């Protein structure tokens, strides 16, 4: 992130925090960055997308180790610390058994929404949602694909009991 970004003060504010979760109003963010948020920030959830490229605002919170959940009704946003980069997974026949926690952690590590993650995997967004809520588990073939994507993304996990 360039030092000249108007979101630099937000990055620094979040980096100084040791809170796992911070909720602040859009107005407080505007005071912090000394700029007005664009209208899209107040009206469109996608402005708050947790994507790692092409978004100076998302770069600020993601570089600080957070993902966001906006509430457009209350004009607030909750910053949550991203999960750790290392997860313990069970293996069966050299295939990792991906569960709801590790799937969501991989998606967040990649900075993708459920829809974007689904597109990356070639599945429906509903499928990703069902994995993350433990309604279903991915097939063995999808688990292998998840493992390849995790390796490419630098997602670290441990195998064993």
UniProtKB/TrEMBL annotation:
Domain HTH cro/C1-type as annotated: residue spans: 103-147
UniProt cross-references to CDD domains, sorted A to Z: HTH_XRE (cd00093)
A Pfam family: DUF7662
Organism superkingdom: Bacteria
GO MF: DNA binding
Protein name as it appears in the record: Helix-turn-helix transcriptional regulator
Naturally occurring in which organism (per UniProt): Pelatocladus maniniholoensis HA4357-MV3
